[in-house]
Structure to design on (730 residues):
């Protein structure tokens, strides 16, 4: 029971084609839907504000339960707002989220983003890479999707130090996790008319772990999705192909770390993390967040953040909760604004502020039909 | 006497690991074992030999065979090959075909283990005459080559659940970082960039980072910088010129991916040289495949092996020959479609390309 995308959709915000509509009851009443909003650190507040303004202008029937979770504190444990956010998400089933800061040092706290994805078991991260009109890049006609395993792999967080000067980091690959990821990836490809799924792996070296990943993706494709072509590519070759000929790929399905690497390469092709929308999705919950997860700490409160990734993620979210008309209107307004190149943020070569960009999108909501 | 010699050697080694210690033979030439490889290997090796001959480079080639055998369950190379390479401290290697997914250890991996090749050096420079979406790329990447994700330690902890171990040791991390700093000194770069993912692998990648910090104290003239692999990937495809000032150094898997990514920026593996550096022995190789489909058809592009052999000459302290050959190769590549091979959208044969290089020496 997959929900197909609306025929008028603009494919940069492919419907995540996700959960069965029957099984998920969204929160809210009176025809309005409640959504958990976690702005995050860095550019998060500015981007969230932009979405709120646009939703208000469009009269989108969505109410936000806004909770500020920050990773800037010193504690190893998540702040109490984190648990509020989880509670809220368990109620609403849908979230719009920015990125929470993670320190790089060995003593810093672990990533609360990763913990949230694990706590909610949102096992698949979908991110969309598509050349946008008006955003000038070296590469033209980029259009592919990464479906990244989101809960285990190199991000297991299991590390041991058997003797000083030696560290073992465990990468966990389990068949059940890969299998549901595979089913999701094929479902996504099917629902959005993308005819091929490519498994990214390093099975020539990690013969068991990545071998299991590769073989499971192939087996699910063969058994359940004969109409979708299934192939595989070694991760280093994939990185090279993506920067020279990305058009050969439709849906890349990857273990956690390779997904992280390829999502950054992909973002580089289409104009940076500011324009890549995404979602982390599981059986029950869907957390819409920028596809290329950069916190943008240096841009905090500078007023120049590009809210496009968050706006387009919110558009994906609107499709998810069945508000296709609003989704389409907002997507169209964003694309028109970008294509005109009159109002653009510095990351894509403009000089405008976040607020100016947002206001231009709102103006387009009224004028572009 | 011997004791003093060994002690002296240790001091030298401590300050410049992976430096060439081969000796000239009676004719005043250096002997270099060459592994011609499979597929197009023999053709491109022939091209290299011909060009070296024409350039009067003081190199005597000895072809060696790397057909492996299994001894006590371990894949080993013929004794003569191992002895020759150990004796002459250096080798040049064409592409080897590794059967995929049949449980074989790849020959490349066996080579790395046999000769303790701990660092892989991959410079990438835009080639004039072959246009890609990028111009002015000039990166140097050094990859840890012995452990990390490639430790090969994997278990099924319960049915359907695999645990793969990424092994990071201070010893190997310090060794590769020290090599990177030395290399930066040698080629005149002022910064070393450690690429890592210590935000997630706090202990493992954290150890790599702290090893680099420790080594950096010995090199006060070189700045140590850090970057998350996320940012490196992103910036590398947006504006690779940023990385011109750096020597990048990173754990095994990241190095594998990033080095191929950099190659992709300038036109693929057919244009990029590679050196595998060990404590005593270093092996320079073309990292592209053996292309069995065009083998023997006089179509192969010897550029990668040529540029690798140029790296080898520099390593052997023969820079004048290195410069001469490199200049001729680059000029040939820039000289138009008639002189370059089909993979670069030209229409020259391997032989034609080779003679064009020779005419420019």
């Amino acid at each position: 029971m997959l929900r197909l995308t609306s025929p008028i959709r603009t494919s940069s915000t492919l419907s995540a084609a996700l959960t069965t509509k029957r099984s998920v009851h969204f929160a809210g009443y009176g025809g309005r839907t409640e959504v958990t909003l976690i702005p995050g650190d860095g550019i998060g507040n500015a981007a969230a504000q932009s979405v709120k303004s646009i939703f208000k202008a469009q009269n989108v029937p969505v109410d936000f339960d806004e909770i500020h979770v920050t990773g800037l504190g010193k504690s190893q444990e998540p702040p109490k707002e984190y648990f509020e956010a989880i509670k809220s998400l368990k109620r609403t089933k849908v979230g719009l989220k920015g990125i929470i800061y993670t320190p790089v040092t060995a003593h810093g706290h672990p990533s609360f983003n990763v913990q949230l994805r694990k706590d909610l078991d949102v096992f698949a991260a979908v991110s969309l890479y598509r050349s946008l009109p008006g955003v000038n890049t070296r590469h033209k006609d980029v259009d592919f999707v990464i479906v990244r395993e989101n809960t285990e792999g190199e991000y297991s967080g299991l590390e041991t130090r058997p003797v000083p000067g030696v560290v073992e980091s465990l990468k966990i690959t389990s068949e059940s996790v890969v299998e549901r990821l595979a089913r999701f990836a094929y479902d996504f490809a099917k629902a959005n008319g993308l005819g091929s799924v490519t498994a990214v792996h390093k099975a020539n070296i990690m013969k068991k772990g990545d071998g299991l990943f590769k073989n499971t993706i192939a087996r699910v494709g063969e058994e359940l999705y004969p109409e979708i072509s299934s192939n595989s590519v070694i991760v280093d070759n994939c990185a090279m192909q993506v920067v020279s000929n990305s058009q050969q790929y439709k849906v890349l399905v990857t273990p956690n770390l390779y997904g992280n690497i390829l999502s950054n390469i992909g973002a580089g092709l289409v104009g940076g993390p500011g324009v890549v929308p995404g979602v982390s999705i599981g059986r029950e919950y869907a957390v819409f967040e920028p596809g290329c997860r950069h916190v943008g700490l240096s841009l905090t409160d500078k007023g120049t953040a590009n809210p496009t990734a968050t706006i387009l993620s919110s558009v994906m979210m609107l499709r998810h909760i069945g508000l296709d008309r609003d989704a389409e209107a907002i997507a169209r307004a964003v694309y028109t604004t970008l294509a005109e190149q009159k109002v653009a943020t510095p990351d894509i070569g403009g000089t405008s502020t976040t607020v100016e960009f947002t206001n231009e999108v709102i103006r387009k909501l009224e004028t572009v039909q | 006497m011997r004791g003093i010699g060994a002690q002296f050697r240790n001091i030298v080694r401590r300050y410049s690991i992976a430096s060439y210690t081969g000796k000239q033979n009676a004719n005043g030439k250096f002997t270099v074992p060459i592994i011609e490889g499979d597929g197009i290997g023999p053709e491109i090796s022939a091209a290299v030999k011909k060009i070296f001959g024409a350039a009067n480079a003081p190199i005597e080639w000895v072809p060696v065979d790397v057909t492996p055998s299994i001894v006590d369950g371990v894949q080993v190379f013929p004794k003569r090959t191992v002895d020759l390479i150990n004796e002459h401290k250096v080798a040049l290697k064409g592409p080897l075909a590794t059967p995929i997914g049949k449980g074989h250890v790849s020959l490349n991996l066996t080579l790395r283990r046999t000769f303790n090749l701990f660092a892989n050096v991959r410079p990438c420079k835009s080639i004039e005459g072959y246009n890609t979406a990028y111009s002015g790329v000039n990166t140097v990447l050094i990859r840890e080559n012995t452990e990390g994700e490639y430790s090969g330690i994997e278990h099924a902890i319960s049915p359907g659940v695999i645990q793969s171990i990424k092994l990071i040791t201070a010893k190997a991390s310090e060794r590769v970082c020290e090599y990177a700093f030395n290399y930066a000194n040698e080629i005149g770069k002022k910064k070393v960039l450690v690429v890592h993912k210590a935000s997630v692998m706090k202990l493992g990648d954290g150890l790599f980072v702290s090893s680099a910090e420790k080594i950096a104290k010995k090199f006060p003239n070189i700045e140590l910088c850090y970057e998350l692999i996320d940012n490196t990937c992103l910036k590398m495809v947006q504006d690779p010129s940023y990385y011109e000032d750096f020597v990048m150094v990173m754990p095994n898997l990241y190095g594998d991916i990033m080095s191929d990514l950099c190659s992709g920026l300038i036109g693929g593996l057919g244009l990029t040289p590679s050196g595998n550096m060990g404590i005593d022995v270093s092996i320079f190789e073309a990292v592209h495949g053996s292309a069995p489909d065009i083998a023997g058809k006089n179509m192969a592009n010897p550029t990668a092996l040529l540029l690798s052999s140029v790296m080898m000459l520099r390593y052997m302290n023969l820079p004048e020959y290195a410069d001469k050959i490199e200049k001729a190769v680059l000029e040939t590549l820039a000289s138009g479609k008639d002189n370059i091979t089909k993979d670069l959208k030209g229409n020259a044969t391997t032989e034609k390309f080779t003679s064009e290089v020779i005419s420019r020496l």
